[in-house]
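Ticket #4471: structure output looks truncated?

Reporter: J.K.
Steps to reproduce: submitted the chain below (210 residues) through the standard prediction queue, then opened the result file.
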Amino acid sequence: MKSLNIAVIGECMVELQKKEGQLKQSFGGDTLNTALYLSRLTKAHDIKTSYVTALGNDPFSQEMLSAWQEEGIDTSLVLSVKERQPGIYYIETDETGERYFHYWRNEAAAKFLFEQNESPLLVDKLYSYDAVYLSGITLAILTEEGKTQLFGFLERLRHKVVRLFSITTTVLNCGKAARMPCLGTLRSLSTQISHCSHLKMSKCFTVTSI
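Returned output as attached by the reporter:
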């Protein structure tokens, strides 16, 4: 049986959340969760899961790489961006249990994933994969140049054997949306991704921004 190679494109961030009066730090992100559980579920079935993102050279980035490798996730497609770090988000939970997300990600390394000297080689490698998965909410942080490069790749991917899977996001409560640039382009971005996808899914959650 032929082995399968699946690439998951997105962003992992530093997660902060207050629990029992203490500020807890971990890592999270929708596409990272997908890669994590996909790797756990397919380890015994000759399926390789690669996470595609950009990190910095800081301690958080190194911890992320080590954690992913321990989970069996391939990190050969993770780019390193000098003088950049991962983004940060804080989860606030109100008295009813509703969660609100506050983001600090304007200069996150993943924003510049498709603008590095190594980016063309990265894209070429993705054509050899059997499937590519991505999420609109995380890729919305890309610069305009990054979006142009991404959608050029996705359009060409439609004519390849590679299968593209995407998840679009509906934001229920934008909060301070005007101060979160990615939300302003989320709808059009999701539409473009859906146009290129072979399988489309959707989800919804509440988000705000600092």
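Triage note (M.O.): checked the attachment and the full token line is present. The mean pLDDT is 81.
Status: closed, working as intended.
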